[in-house]
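Q: What would this complex look like in 3D?
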Amino acid sequence: MALLADGVSALFIDGKMLSGSAGTFPTINPATEEVLGVAAEADAEDMGRAIDAARRAFDETDWSRNTELRVRCVRQLRNAMRDHIDELRELTIAEVGAPRMLTASAQLEGPVDDLGFAADTAESYVWNQDLGAASPMGIPTRRIITREAVGVIGAITPWNFPHQINLAKLGPALAAGNTVVLKPAPDTPWCAAVLGEIIAEHTEFPPGVVNIVTSSDHSLGALLAKDPRVDMISFTGSTATGRSVMIDAAATIKKVFLELGGKSAFVVLDDADLASASGISAFSTCMHAGQGCAITTRLVVPRACYDEAVAVAAATMSSIKPGDPSDSGTVCGPLISARQRDRVQGYLDLAIAEGGTFASGGGRPPSREVGFFIEPTVIAGLSNDARTAREEIFGPVLTVIAHDGDDDAVRIANDSPYGLSGTVFGDDPERVARVAARLRVGTVSVNGGVWYSADAPFGGYKQSGIGREMGLAGFEEYLESKTIATAVN
Ligand code: NAD
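A: Here is my prediction, written as structure tokens for the whole assembly.
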């Protein structure tokens, strides 16, 4: 059966596809501004029912102890998504405005395949570790450390890479034995709701293990964070919302896992191939119109080559035209909404007010009156103190900043409230490695290396988050540790 066949998506609660008690809300194609269809609009009571179902599935079934069933279900989800991959691709392009080329990797196929990593990890995981016999306080005792699921996970996700983020939470959380209530972003309800359809039709997940609650109302996320029946919040989104989630979760001392914003630096050392590094930096900032939390949006270059770096970045960006995301050659599609486009435009206006200049772009592309597009933009003439250089813009906007040597480059890169990612380019491997080691961030690319993969943890220092997603560390975020000490004679 085709997914979302009638243009209406449902809630998925306790194994059933349900209408939203508050009606429906539209989902929009950001490239055309057309309404694609509608999604179920949940209210607070729907959210309460979903939490209740997840609680019961955790407390009253053997889900958390039946590793074989869990591994089978996660693999079934992966295989069923693979079977629907072309439908999912068209949906993702239409709802997210994701360039088609990215659906072969992080926008779709990567995270679907990575469900296999979560299942494999659960299958081979050492759930019990025997510390052996000892006599703490003089009492002969055998100690076993058991790892077990945390419980009910509230997963709250953004719109920019919906499959990546939804599945990087669902995969490990479920494989580890938790039950989940997923509240996706209001801008991309369908990318989440299709999971409910696929799970209902093609998998053996017991009712209540996965629940998906779509809503245009952000406060449903806050309900998840506050609810005493929820054991842990796994949140990806902006730092401001993450702070609010932490405050809400504090009342019940829940575990909080946060993947937040970034303002990452692309550091070019003075022995690097400046033209090639500046071009790569500009190109990567245009990917998905800059709507990636780990994109390196500050290009930090030797002062002596500043003008050359700006010129190369501007030439690269000028050659990348914001385009139809369904075209296979498009790198830079639309922003997700008029609100985001206006927010980015606000930062472009701020850059000029702060004394910066545009070396390319600077506004909406004249050729695209329809769709939420912004021209790839290079900002020159600002220091790292400018708000434009410190705050997350989340658009195809690169700020070029001068440095006075390796120490200064490290200082500038680390002079940020964020600490998500970074890049270093240079010719001398030892020197590049020294600089990479000094960056206070969760992932570093050196001379073009790629850190994104199922087995590599991803996450941030400082205000970019708490905890790690993906890799073994991402699996273990969803586990408690219990020590069982048995007296021996
Ligand atoms: P957002 O913070 O506005 O929303 C994220 C989610 O939180 C949505 O589902 C939203 O409905 C929900 N939400 C909003 N207010 C809430 C509240 N008070 N309590 C609970 N939930 C609430 O973020 P966004 O605009 O959807 O996404 C863009 C942001 O996400 C950027 O800052 C980006 O850097 C960040 N992001 C981070 C990562 C990462 O892994 N570090 C990945 C992708 C996006």
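A: To summarize the key features: The chain has 15 helices and 23 strands. The chain has two domains: 8-260+464-486, 265-446.
Q: Very helpful, thank you.
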